[in-house]
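Annotated sample (chain length 515).
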Amino acid sequence: MTQIVWMLVAFAAYLLLMVGVGAYYSGKNSSAEDYFLGGRKLGGFVAALSAQASDMSGWLLMGLPGSIYLVGVGGDGWVALGLFVGTVLNWLLISKRLRRYTIRANNSLTLPSYFENRFHDKKRILMVVSSVTIVIFFLVYCASALAAGGQLFESLFGWDYKLALTIGAIVILVYTFLGGFSAVCVTDFIQGMLMLVALLAIPIIALFVMQGDGMSINAGLAANTLPGTTEDFVNIMKYKDGNNNFVNIISGLGWGFGYFGMPHILVRFMAVKDEKELKKSKVTAIIWVALSLFFACFIGVLGRAFLAPDALVEAGNEKVFIHMIVELLSNRLKAPFIAGIFLCGILAAIMSTADSQLLVSASSVAEDIYKGLVDRKASDKKVLVISRITVLVIAVLAYIIALNPKNTIMGLVSNAWAGLGAAFGPLVLMSLFWKRCNFQGAVAGIVSGALSVIVWDYIPLVNGATIGDATGLYSLVVGFAVSLLMIVAVSLCTKAPSAEILREFEDVNNNKLEA
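Output written by the structure step:
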């Protein structure tokens, strides 16, 4: 009982700190640009850790280690590799050019407004289509974060899942509601550091404890009661039944395509103070993601060895990191407060993504739909009010989705990541690097990408199963390819962009950002 109390104290201190940051920044938002982009004053290190922390979510510390624990490195080890490559390409190819183009395109504050300004969409069709797409898929994405929080509190304190879910949702809602983009980025920076420390420290502590017990990793893997040999488990070319296949590899690597279309990550590029800070961000982000993904996979392997012979059942495999922290720090080393701090790393991963998704959804509704379509003369104060109402509504809807405890973190993240990546990834690339890309192609790309994922993942067309389940091919790979082809084909079959749009494209090439 004493151990639980100390862990609760650690959680309470951490949550109060996060809410305090939100309260501090609540008085610093004097305009919509402040609330949505922090006035474009984001420092390099904050931008890097904020982008990566908001990217990885509870999936990094729960979903990925749990999947590796269950089926071995040859399963989602390919996902980790794909995400690393995608992160590197995103920072090297997209970050600087997107920052320049959003400034040149009428100082765009959001991804939908960038699309509208980039293609001179006077009817605001792109604004509506992209904003609706963001809200739909972010509902699912945010639900995954809330579900992870519910599982965390339920596992640690024995609380009812609904109660645990409610507490986590309220905390995230409060500091996002108060502080806006600056609060989200500062808390994400803190949370990114905490996530990295937890990922690095726990495997090292586990190895020392195992050595003291006279147990090797191989011996632990062999003692585990889950199916699969040790050799197959640690071989990236083996998967489940001892064989890997081309579809699994392509699906795993295909996760990397998603980065080009993630609004909550791309908005960090738009908000960086200057290109000098952006260079620092690239190095920091790439190192952070390399270490985080490697150690998250290692935790899945180590957890299977360390927790042997008591195998977690399939439904509980996503709690492997939680079990390791509690067993190591609380039970073995008798340091429950420290265990609570490390467990806050998992909470940090959850919160750092949910807050960003709530804010991007709010900006899409308030700035893009409300001010863009309903009341174009709306004051910044009114836009801020609408955005905060939107944060509340989105959080409630995501909470309702997360109420079903059968939804896995991995499954929810996979669907949302595919939808956003397929809808926006190809268009972001084409809009930045292909001057022939036009308005018609942009609309076709967003709609075809989003619909491809929905059809692939949600509609049972093959003997009562979805195409995704029947083929095993990740919907993002299909949706990305369809969207890219539609952008190119429709752009070439319709009228070329105007001279003004082409001139803006060349201005970005020449770093001429003033109109």
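Annotation: The chain has a mean pLDDT of 81.
Annotation: The first helix runs from residue 2 to 26.
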